[in-house]
From TrEMBL:
Classification of source organism: Bacteria, Bacillati, Bacillota, Bacilli, Bacillales
Pfam families reported in the protein's UniProt record: Polysacc_synt (PF01943)
Membrane topology type: Multi-pass membrane protein
Cellular location(s): Cell membrane
Keywords recorded for this protein, A-Z: Cell cycle, Cell division, Cell membrane, Membrane, Transmembrane, Transmembrane helix
Highest taxon in the source lineage: Bacteria
Keyword Hydrolase found: no
GO (cellular component) term, any one: plasma membrane
Membrane-spanning ranges: 12-34, 46-68, 88-106, 126-145, 166-184, 190-215, 243-263, 295-315, 336-360, 372-393, 400-418, 424-449, 461-485, 491-511
Principal location: membrane
GO biological process: cell division
Protein name per the record: Cell division protein
Length: 537
């Protein structure tokens, strides 16, 4: 993997992990401030919001990244700048239209989600959806500027703005909900509305960071224009034709997770009510789409970073017809992703009970759902990365096909599986849908990139063996610890998680260093990192 790709991947990975970890840990105080009903209300608002934000940006920011990377490789810098300026106007229009649609459609959407025999009211759900809709005005601008910087293979601005956005949002969520409920003595709906409005405040913070970067980098970016070849004068009409081709798959990729969750939102509560579980439908939905999802999404952070950094790099290799570089990057991407995500999801599944207790309260349902849901994270990760690869090799049309197949399977199986397995049925339906989508993506990569999977399969078997040995070591430790520690009390759950994680990580990385697998994946950077650690020690 090239040093620039590794550096960009590291920066985006670090920022994404920080952002995801912050997004994970804030749910502990937020859960205790607003409770399960507040969690459910929050997720009722956020799922439609994420769908509308994808529609508002229309995949253009990520497509702009690919477009600018392509023309920068050809040294046609003015083409990308021209597109960027017009894109700001487009983002303002699509953001405003999406805000108006979500705001005024909120009551109808809430009425469709909430059946009559459930305690949560349609009016309450509509209120929190309207509160989050204001973010749609700001986020598209921020996303476009991130895409512009990523197109120049500069990940720092996106990384910093992502972290700032998350910090500002979380502070506003927690402070706002607490003040409304405990100081102003407001209602739960008002508190959750303030918490969802935090998306807008966070976006303003992230946008501010990007504007600062733009001010600092503008002399350099203007300098690139001086080296512009000037052999291409592409009209805005032709630009947007190319952008639309790029953007359509990005819309679906950006929407993928939200669409799977939205199917749950439309079918889960009604199906639970049909089988006589209306009284626990809302709390079960909170466990499924908020509490466990927040935990499961952490291992996916690496895939998110890869999907952002792969597109410009793979596009560059593809445009330059550098097949060796392309295959090498794909090899490393698949292997590193498996190396980092597989042990994480296996460990999360093994320690489901103490981890769920640590973040929320002891819950048999939460433990069962997390144990089933954790392995699905690796499917989320591979879908994001394989979709990014398809976009990089200009076979993005198949991303749409694979996602539609996955969603069709989810939609077809969700209701019958929920009736058979209750909450866990929704998880199984999601896993089946993502598996089908990934298989289609891999077949396309094999066919059109002529990519040989032999090395990945060999190394993958080795990683699976190491993970199995890690699972055995951590599992034995877990059994021994639970002889005298209780995983349903916070302090003891914390001790169990820390010790088991240390044992599991120790086994996994010992084997990785002993067989030199870690060197094959990360190269000499491992030696430099170890040298720094020794010097500091």
């Amino acid at each position: 993997m090239s040093s620039k790709l590794l550096r960009g991947t590291f920066i985006m990975t670090l920022a994404t992990i920080i952002s995801k970890v912050l997004g994970l840990f804030y749910v502990i105080p937020f859960y205790h401030i607003v409770g399960e009903e507040g969690n459910a209300l929050y997720s009722f608002a956020y799922i439609p919001y994420t769908i509308f934000i994808s529609l508002a940006t229309a995949g253009i920011p990520a497509a702009v990244s690919k477009f600018i990377s392509k023309y920068n490789a050809l040294e046609e810098y003015a083409v990308g700048r021209k597109l960027f300026k017009s894109g700001l106007v487009v983002m303002f229009c699509t953001g405003t239209i999406s805000f108006l649609f979500l705001y005024f459609l909120a009551p109808s959407l809430a009425d469709f989600i909430i059946p009559d025999n459930v305690d949560t009211s349609v009016k309450d759900v509509a209120t929190v959806i309207r509160a989050v809709s204001f973010a749609l005005i700001v986020v598209p601008f921020m996303s476009l500027i991130r895409g512009f910087f990523q197109g120049h293979q500069s990940m720092g601005p996106s990384a910093l703005s992502q972290v700032i956005e998350q910090i500002v949002r979380i502070v506003f969520v927690l402070a706002g909900a607490f003040i409304v409920l405990y100081i102003m003595k407001g209602s739960l709906v008002q508190a959750v509305s303030v918490a969802t409005f935090a998306a807008c405040i966070g976006a303003i913070g992230g946008l501010g960071a990007l504007l600062w970067y733009w001010y600092k980098r503008k002399p350099y970016l203007d300098g690139l224009l001086l080296n512009d070849k000037g052999t291409m004068d592409i009209s805005l009409k032709d630009m947007y034709k190319e952008i639309v081709v790029y953007a359509a798959p990005f819309i679906f990729v950006g929407l993928s997770g939200s669409l799977f969750q939205f199917i749950d939102q439309l079918t889960f509560i009604r199906t639970m009510a049909e089988i006589g579980l209306a009284d626990q439908a809302v709390s079960s939905f909170a466990v499924l789409n908020f509490q466990t999802h927040k935990l499961v999404i952490i291992p996916v952070s690496l895939a998110t970073a890869f999907s952002l950094t792969l597109v410009p790099s793979i596009t560059k290799a593809f445009v330059e017809s550098d097949r060796t570089s392309l295959n090498y990057q794909l090899n490393q991407a698949f292997q590193v992703l498996l190396f980092l995500t597989l042990p994480a999801v296996v460990g999360l599944s093994l320690l489901a009970e103490p981890i769920f207790t640590l973040f929320y309260d002891p819950s048999e349902l939460g433990t069962e759902v997390l144990r089933t849901y954790a392995p699905v994270a690796i499917l989320f990760a591979y879908f994001l990365v394989t979709a990014a690869i398809l976009q990089g090799i200009n076979e993005q049309r198949y991303t749409v096909l694979s996602l539609l197949v996955g969603l069709l399977l989810k939609l077809s199986l969700n209701i019958p599986l929920i009736k058979m397995m209750e909450t866990q049925g929704a998880v199984v339906a999601t896993a089946i849908g993502y598996t089908a989508a990934i298989l289609i993506n891999l077949i396309v990569i094999k066919t059109y990139a002529k990519y040989p999977f032999r090395l990945v399969l060999r190394r993958g078997i080795l990683i699976v063996i190491f993970t199995a040995l890690m699972f055995a070591g951590a599992g034995i430790t877990y059994k021994l610890l639970t002889l005298f520690l209780t995983p349903t009390t916070n302090l003891q759950a914390f001790i169990i998680v820390v010790i088991c994680a240390a044992v599991g990580a120790g086994v996994y990385f010992y084997l990785s260093f002993k067989t030199k697998l870690v060197y094959f994946l990360f190269g000499q950077k491992v030696d430099r990192l170890l040298k720094k650690v020794r010097l500091r020690g």
